[in-house]
Design goal:
The protein is about 70% helix and about 0% strand. The protein is an all-alpha fold. The protein has one domain. Helix 1 packs antiparallel against helix 2. About 0% of the residues are buried. Pfam families: HEAT_GCN1_C_2.
Length: about 60
């Protein structure tokens, strides 16, 4: 898969994580999870930081 297509798919899936319908959010999360094992380390780290790791200084 080309880098352009991969980035497009990742961007679309990430945007769907905030969809108002729960089923759409769950499907997007499942798709992202399936893609994790195929991502290069740098893209995986960026995706982790953007979607999974939420650092809120007020929570420390």
């Amino acid at each position: 898969m080309s880098e352009t297509i991969c980035k497009s798919i990742l961007t679309t899936q990430q945007s769907m994580l905030s969809h108002p319908e729960e089923d759409s959010r769950m499907a997007a999360a499942g798709c992202l999870g399936a893609l994790f094992r195929h991502l290069p380390a740098d893209e995986l780290e960026a995706l982790d930081n953007d979607c999974l790791i939420h650092e809120d200084p007020s929570m420390h």
